[in-house]
Amino acid sequence: MTVYLDYSATTPVLPEVAELVCRMMMVEYGNAGSRTHVYGVNAKRVVQAARTQVANVVNADKTEVIFTSGATESNNIAILGMRAYAEQSGKKHIITSKIEHKAVLEPISYLEKIGFSVTYLDVTPNGTIDMGQLKDSLREDTVLVSIMHVNNETGTVQPLNEICQILDGHDAFFHVDAAQSFGKYSFGLENSRIDFISVSGHKIYAPMGIGALILRRRCFIRPPLEAIYFGGGQEKGLRPGTLATPLIAGLGLACDLAKENNRTWLNHVSVLKKEFIEMLSPLGAKINGVNTSPYILNFFIPGVNSEAAMVKLKESIAVSNGSACTASSYSHSHVLTAMGLEEYQISGSIRVSFSHVTERIPYHDIFEKLKSLI
Known about the structure:
The protein has twelve helices and twelve strands.
């Protein structure tokens, strides 16, 4: 049986989460917007409880949580929702990095096309952003800084607290795409200088199709976001549409479980990653990125093409050679390119991502199959 090691693409729904979602779909199926009967009242109660569960992961307030379909939508709301404020205030400069997920780069690119100025920060060969460049790039008209927490390809962790220190005293809003870290490696996300946090449910064992955007207040004032689409007053007027109560309930429970078991999960995946690296070492493998999340490992073996390796390994382990969101039209990783890797290194790179639900990895089988390609 093939062992799944692509948890950065998606995670399985935990049994207790699936059970709750099914119950909310089949038994407690009220609409949270219906206030005239017990079904609607109960649904609203479940939604409010889930806001608290999401907020607790990063020490936010439940009133600062809005539910979305996932991190991509959250990113779009946080970025495109700033447009009106930026234009009204005359602050139309955005700072981001060259290694962001396409869900950040593409909405920022759209704003750039309509007149915004964008600074794309370089990254070091280690995969971290250039802090000096960030400091030098801040301008009076900088309205937004958008930097991901944990990179989805390499697992490199950006130093959020250091970024917050650089931004201290500046009015720019700070957005963090936390799809790969929220609930699993949340260190730094509790920093109150972070204004927006994007959350993805299916990265933390909740169903696909649910996520959240956390909007921290400044001096009790909500960030000046405006809706980017319309059709109802749900979610503080920022995200219209009937709330997906079953999925929201599942996300809330998944957040509770992640918060409760965080240390145990981290210890488990740290061992798996250490063992995997030890297995790769005799093959001359090189690790991409420094200061990486225990959940993600990105490597290449000189002389081995990633496509050939994945074909060879497909009956042993399920892995990837890039972001799942761009896999249908494969091109060289913009993340590894920004890190300065050579073409042969990029074309040979493989991402392995771990989970606490992984019980065993067929190390000997993997080693022999990779060795046969050298």
